[in-house]
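Supplementary Methods, section 5.1.

A reviewer requested that the exact input to the structure prediction be made available. We therefore reproduce it here, unchanged from the version used in the analyses.
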Amino acid sequence: MYDVVIIGAGVSGSAIARELSRYRGKFCVLEKEEDVCCGTSKANSGIVHAGYDARPGSLMAKLNVEGNRRMKALSEELDFPFRQTGSYVVCMDKESRPKLEELFERGQKNGVEDLQILSYEEAVREEGNLSKDMDSVLYAPTAGIVCPFGLNIALAENAHTNGVEFRFDTEVLEIARQERGFVIKTSNGDYETRYVVNAAGVYADVFHNMVSADKIHITPRKGEYLLLDKSAAGQVSHTIFSLPGKYGKGILITPTAHGNLLAGPTATDIPDKEGTNTTAEGLASIFEKAGISVQSLSLRNVITSFAGLRAHEDGHEFIIKELEDAPGFIDCAGIESPGLTSAPAIGVMVAGMLQEKLNLVDNPGFEPRRKGILNPALLTMEERNRLIKGQPAYGNIICRCEMISEGEILDAIHRPLGAKSLDGVKRRTRAGMGRCQSGFCSPRVMEILHRELGIPMEELTKSGANSRMITGGRKEAAR
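The structure derived from this sequence is encoded token-by-token as follows.
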């Protein structure tokens, strides 16, 4: 019997797990994929929103601003990449200026600090590639960028180190109420728990509707992105938004925490909760619209494209509450943008609810700090030489595009909740995220995974399940 079972190891579920680990109890996270950060949390823009966009008085607005304020300290505690770069919302003409002023006023009501409206002349001093046709911008200095993988993995690792269990490749099939709590039937057996936290992203409505007569509906809203090479990163230094429309913030251009440039997302409502394919039309629209606010974007710099799904709830609001007709079941549903920004605050809110309901006491052994994977590039030459002399694996470069060493990959595999697949290594180290998109390093990463984990080569996967890298029988694979 668990005290709490969390469904979903995305950024919300992992943030809740981390905050729960401050208390004594038996806690578990169930995840249907092979790793953390495999759903909505892995495929987003990595922007830490300032908080001027959400409706004043909404839970979304409150948690956005609170999550933004917590991010810097959290990044220092858990050692993940975060930069407070600021953001611009571009107004293209004087006729649209009232909409920009409305955003400014909304941000002030939400408690966003230091908002300013800048003229074109003021804005272009900082962003020389802004469109010459624009009128003005809303400047939010508290906005920033974060590595979404780094944040999610850091939260999960710290939760696990502090005693939270994680069960991967464990798909929830059914949830049933019983005398004391719930029984969760999964693809890997049954789990009994006093409380359930439903942090299942686009599937949160499925699990909510299993236990409640008050139904909710979540639409997968697909967003497609283009990732540009690091050679394009200098084109902008802030996150550049267009004025929001019916489907959100429009096409944005932003630097990433690792020095690339990202353009997107589109916004298309689809029925398929696994529909993460890209389309020619969607990607073409990104370039067409991105070029409106920023000059000189070049297709030559695109190294990959991808798509993610936002969990859009019909009321466009976070649903975070215990269900009246299913006591013990807590929703964390409808967590779309600004969900990544809000995650630290969501974790505190839900863990606080559970602490009160379960009378949880402090965990005296709670360790708030976590050290990420060592990056030799941040060392002096003298320090790097000393490191390689003591641990030669750090001198063996596996990924040439990102200059990732064998030592970093070994750390990714053997640390808490370590990598078991190529994507697991990629999200922790960036091996395979460069210009060649793992064309050179994937065989070498596979050899290391095979050697360190004892997984047969023909069973190694890109991202778990049936994504095997080698096809055919053992004899064919050996040849």
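The CA atoms of residues 420 and 449 lie 7 Å apart. These observations are discussed further in the main text.
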